[in-house]
Structure formats: C-alpha cells, structure tokens
Amino acid sequence: MTKLEQLRDIAKRLEEVSGPDTEIDKDIASAFGLDWDYSADWGPRYGESPVAFPYTKSIDAALGLVDRTLPGVRLQLEHDGGRWHFTVWNDPNDDTWTISASAPAGYLAILRAWVAAMIDRLEDGE
Question: How many domains does the chain have?
Fold first, then answer.
C-alpha cells in the first residue's frame, strides 16, 4: 500500500471514530516510518516516554505530529463550546492553501485536517 493509500484509509477511519483509537495511532506511525512502542498503549511507566504517542488521545501528540510532518505551516485550533475546529495554512503569509476540519474532540479535528493536508500535498507531488 502506498503512503497516499494509507493516508486515505486513515482519513476515512478518522471520520468514523468519535474517540481514541490505538489502531489508527499505530497506522499513523507506520505510514511515517515511526517506531511504535507498545507502552504508548498504556502510557509511560517507570519514568519512560513512549516512542510513538497516542495521537487520537492527546491534543499535544496530534499537534506534535503536525509539527513534524508539516513544518512551517500556520495552525489555528478553536473551540466553540460544542465542537473543535482546526485550520492549517500552507504559508503563514498566504491564505490560498487552507484546510480545515471540525470534530467533537480537539485531537480529532487536528488529525482530520492534518491527514487532509498530507493527502493534498502528496497528490500535488510535494
């Protein structure tokens, strides 16, 4: 399966979930060649930090993924009391390439917009 196919599959699954999903976390790590430390499934023990983070459980982990895979983009996360909204701008000084998503959880809004941006970049050959 190509990276683009993996991301399309992840995008579909992110639209269907409403909460944490360890299988999606593992597939995100796999798509980017990141090691998966199974301690991430249950959290750090004995002062250790997991190698791969549970992206579908944490705003910080999801934002870290965006930062590593889409460096230099402008980000905006908002909460309107009922839903979270996340927007990615390709160029901090140009609003021509924007991708937004919303979800009931902040980390899902981030991941939905992130995967859409990654797919867009791969389709454009970046």
Answer: 1
**Strands of the chain, DSSP E:** 74-79, 84-91, 94-103
Q: What is the CATH number of the domain that holds 109?
A: 3.30.160
Number of H helices, E strands in the chain: 4, 3
Token digits for 62? 């999801």
DSSP state of 118: H
Which residues span the domain enclosing 72?
3-18+55-123
**Closest C-alpha to 114, from 79, 72, 63:** 63
Beta strands in 2-124 (DSSP E): 74-79, 84-91, 94-103
**What are the pLDDT digits (tens) for 12-62?**
999 999 888 988 998 998 888 776 665 555 555 555 555 556 889 889 989
Residue 98 lies in a domain: yes
Name 19's Cβ contacts closer than 8 Å, sequence gap at least 6: 56, 105
In a domain, 119, yes or no: yes
